[in-house]
From TrEMBL:
Subcellular location: Cytoplasm
Gene Ontology BP term (one): 'de novo' NAD+ biosynthetic process from L-aspartate
UniProt KW keywords: FAD, Flavoprotein, Oxidoreductase, Pyridine nucleotide biosynthesis
Gene Ontology CC, one term: cytoplasm
Coiled coil: none
Name of this chain's protein: L-aspartate oxidase
Catalytic activity line of the entry: L-aspartate + O2 = iminosuccinate + H2O2
InterPro entries listed in its UniProt record: FAD-dep_OxRdtase_2_FAD-bd (IPR003953), FAD/NAD-bd_sf (IPR036188), Fum_R/Succ_DH_flav-like_C_sf (IPR037099), Fum_Rdtase/Succ_DH_flav-like_C (IPR015939), NadB (IPR005288), Succ_DH/fumarate_Rdtase_cat_sf (IPR027477)
Comp. bias regions, Basic and acidic residues: 519-528
């Protein structure tokens, strides 16, 4: 079914997609795809806040320097400076829309809203809405989107692939509705805001993580991907094997939380002079080492010394959620474990969100902007969403009409691959990635992962040409190829840097490290 022509099509309804829609719609009509299940996406679950230079005691150069240090030599300094410089105006824009950031009760404070500090930051620069910033921002933006007459919000469709033409341009997206009926949404300009690839791993900080679908949809049209090996594991996810994942914000450590081993001994001061406020890659590896040493499935995060009043004031959402899971964090330490959290790489983009495919853009976690380098610094992600979505919107507001060219042919099959089989194969993929391509990678493990993923591909690929399209099948196929590209990128990086740690090559490599860049054609099997 051809659903007509759309001027600007945005796929993904998290913060990046919502911001972009609002900033474009005054000039061009927008269609925004936000499937119902996206309500559980990463943006809504972001707790800590947004990093920006807002205090008179802070400055742009300090934020830039902190980000470069956290990125471990692999950041694009131009992208870092661009993002940081956009921060104050982006926050002012959110305030103008009514985002309920937490005020600072101190009448002598230099900034009217409370600023906290998180790992890697040398100053208090994290503006937040209690400990549920993502939810507050998403809900505010969503209200404005729903009220805008030039934005058509579609919650009934899920994109499974992009439409290309013989001139190499992106011309929209192929989608499925709840009944499995195929819809073609043709567009002058298409923007991916589909999130990252934490869903390639078994333990994540989101209940319904993306599996890199947007990255691979772009790669199918020839887009370049970068830095896939740098997958961030948040150091502190609630350890509860029988319950859903729940993130324990970095702000908990920013406000004085201490990490303890299973015997109750603090261990981070022995690892790094910044202790609990070291960058996430350092903290996650330290926790992983403690777990390997003790044989236990978690360590402890202790904030009892802050007192119940302060805990309830700063962390009402975390306190209430943990209480619902049987843990009173005011009187007992929190069991925590690292979990896949954020993809530092993605689709290579310019500072305006343009990919290497004409008429295709990417913003948010799906994009590889160069901001994060080898390790994302806490709360820079929502800042990136704001800065790049607004920059992309400025370009799209003045884009010329697309040149017409014949569309690339595509045909669906008739054989069904069940949802249960797709989920079972995805679970196999996640086991391989979690065991061999997680916080610590070794050459032998990467080789084994490559073999296992190639075997999964061999089992699935011959059946695809005649398969009925489904959301589950598309997600599995995207995830499988992205996992293989991730393993290839990790194998090729003969050093340890940031989030990529390999004991078989434990030192930094070249003095001038390079971003890794891959294409779908680098795989020996691809769907045509």
């Amino acid at each position: 079914m051809n659903d007509g022509k759309h001027e600007v099509l945005i796929i993904g309804g998290g913060i990046a997609g919502l911001v972009l829609a609002l900033e474009v719609a005054d000039r061009r009509p927008v269609t925004l795809l936000q499937p119902a299940r996206d309500g559980l996406g990463a943006s809504r679950w972001a707790q800590g806040g947004i990093a920006a230079v807002l205090s008179p005691d802070d400055d742009i150069e300090a934020h830039v320097a902190d980000t470069l240090i956290a990125g471990d030599g692999l950041c694009d300094e131009a992208a870092v400076r661009f993002t940081v410089e956009q921060g104050p105006a982006a926050i002012a824009w959110l305030l103008s829309l009514g985002v309920p950031f937490t005020p600072d009760p101190d009448p002598n404070a230099g900034y009217p809203y409370h600023l906290t500090r998180e790992g890697g930051h040398g100053a208090r620069r994290i503006i937040h809405a209690d400990d549920a910033t993502g939810r507050a921002v998403v809900e505010t933006l969503r209200r404005h989107v729903e009220a805008h007459p030039a934005i058509r919000l579609r919650t009934d469709l899920t994109a499974i692939g992009l439409i290309g033409d013989r001139a190499g341009q992106c011309r929209g997206a192929r989608c499925l509705d709840a009944a499995g009926q195929l819809h073609e949404l043709r567009a002058d300009d298409t923007v991916l805001a589909t999130g990252g690839a934490s869903g390639l791993f078994r333990h994540t900080t989101s209940p319904n993580p993306a599996c890199g679908e947007g990255m691979m949809m772009a790669a199918e049209l020839g887009a370049e991907l970068m830095n896939l090996e740098f997958q961030q594991f948040h150091p502190t996810c609630l350890f509860d094997p029988d319950g859903p994942p729940f993130l324990i914000s970095e702000a908990v450590r920013g406000e004085g939380g201490l990490l303890l081993d299973v015997e109750g001994r603090r261990f981070m001061p022995d690892v790094d002079s910044r202790a609990e406020l070291a960058p996430r890659d350092v903290v996650a590896r330290a926790i992983d080492a403690q777990m390997q040493r003790s044989g236990q499935g978690h360590v402890w995060l202790d904030i009892r010394h802050l007192g119940e009043a302060a805990i309830r004031h700063h962390f009402p959402t975390i306190h209430a959620h943990c209480l619902s899971r049987g843990i009173d964090i005011a009187s007992a330490p929190i069991p925590v474990v690292p979990a896949a959290h954020y993809s530092c790489g993605g689709i290579s983009t310019s500072l305006e969100g343009a990919t290497t495919v004409p008429r295709l853009y990417a913003v948010g976690e799906v994009a590889g902007t160069g901001l994060h380098g080898a390790n994302r610094m806490a709360s820079n992600s929502l800042l990136e969403c704001l800065a790049f979505a607004r920059s992309c919107a400025r370009r799209l507001r003045h884009a010329r009409p697309a040149n017409e060219a014949p569309l690339t042919p595509w045909q669906a099959g008739s054989a069904r691959i069940s949802e249960e089989e797709c989920l079972a194969l995805l679970a196999e993929l996640r086991e391989v990635m979690s065991a061999r391509v997680a916080i610590v990678r070794r050459d032998s493990g990467l080789d084994e992962a490559a073999r296992c993923l190639a075997e999964l591909t061999d089992r699935l690929a011959p059946r695809l040409a005649d398969a009925v399209p489904s959301v589950e099948l598309a997600s599995l196929w995207h995830a499988l190829r992205l996992a293989r590209l991730t393993v290839a990128s990790a194998t090729a990086r003969r050093e340890s840097r940031g989030l990529h740690f390999n004991p078989d090559c434990p030192l930094h490599g070249d003095a001038a490290p390079q971003a890794s860049r891959v294409h779908l054609s680098d795989l020996d099997t691809e769907r045509t």
